[in-house]
Amino acid sequence: MKKRILIPIIAAVILLAVLFMPMSWGTYNDGGTREWIALTYKIVSWKRLCDGGEDGPFLYEKTRIYGPADRNKSIDELWERESADFGNRSESYTDEWIEKSDRTKTENTFVRHVRITEIYDNCFFAVCVAPMPYQIKLNGKLSYDWCVGDQVSVTYENIYCDDQTQRIEADFITVEPSDFEHNPTVDYKPVIYLYPEEETKVTVTLDYNGRLTCTYPAYNDGWTVTAAPDGTLTDASGQIYNYLYWEGESLTQYDFSKGFCVKGEDTAAFLEDALEKLGLNRREANEFIVFWLPQMEQNAYNVIAFQDTVYTESARLEATPAPDTVIRVFMAYMRSDVYVDIEAQALSAPQREGFTLVEWGGTQVQ
After folding, report:
1. For the sheet containing 240-241, what is the strand order?
2. CATH code for 90-177?
3. What is the distance of C-alpha 159 from the center of its chain?
4. What does the pLDDT look like over 164-175, one tens digit per residue?
5. CB 153, CB 113: distance < 8 Å
6. Strands 167-177 and 135-139, bridge-based pairing
7. How far is CA 336 from the centre of its chain?
8. Cα separation of 126 and 142, whole Å?
9. Dihedral in degrees, nearest 10, Cα atoms 110, 116, 118, 121
10. What is the residue extent of each domain of the chain?
11. Sequence-distant (≥ 6) Cβ neighbours of residue 295 within 8 angstroms
12. pLDDT digits over 302-334, tens only?
């Protein structure tokens, strides 16, 4: 009896070792890069001598874990992605990012956790990891310890903010690794666009089955703005916004009875097609994808279900005057290491007619 029990245990241990135990693949003659490969992932300890331009050569050192999608890629293919930002590092960014002449400095640090998107000799660009609707330019020379795609925690000073273009510019002080992770109970970045047929004063209220954690502009028993046909929103003080923004914590159980299972690398193309079917225009779909894609494309698979009444009943919106057309797109998704067979979801949207209200948002489900 003991032997019968031991045999499957030993077999399971051997299987786990084969699947997850990495084997050394040797050391490369590029400065000392080492590679370990398992059946389901690959580890590369980069140690490569690089040309630093005017700064002279430098040794790039960083350890990366690559998932199933990258496991079979050659070291040169992985390096091409790893070093994608080096070309810009010899260039200085000279365009004006924010017109500071008519902008006021602020002490509001807005966000600390960001993901690097571009690196230049004199600055780097980033987007918020937490759901904030800004693009960020941080001035200063970033060390070669950091690459495009890295998630970092930053401190900075001399801050300028342009709410109309949703841009922030500052001088960074420190850059450190970030361990920020999205909270699975949070509905992230629902944003509300208003498109009346003529300039109209609109009040929007939200009856949310949860706790609001962030709103912009501030939600004081509702938002009241003057909306223009192009979607521009102006509050009572004359401040201009592209949309109304909120996030909140909810214990809503989202519906995954139907949906889609999409490879991480195919997520951008999938979202472009799905969001068009769901009624978002190109600008709205672009803002949706820019926010969600960095969190999804590195996953082996994403199980995606667009929510209907489960979401709209937990977050009831009312607008005065009442819109002629309402389009609300809310995506719930789960990471998966394997393909999940799920019944396909039908996607459609009403035709935009008259005063149109559009909202999109999403959440990651554990």
Report:
1. 240-241, 233-234, 223-227, 200-208, 315-320
2. 2.40.50
3. 23
4. 777 889 999 999
5. yes
6. parallel
7. 17
8. 12
9. 90
10. 24-82, 90-177, 186-364
11. 182, 364
12. 999 999 999 999 999 999 999 999 999 999 999
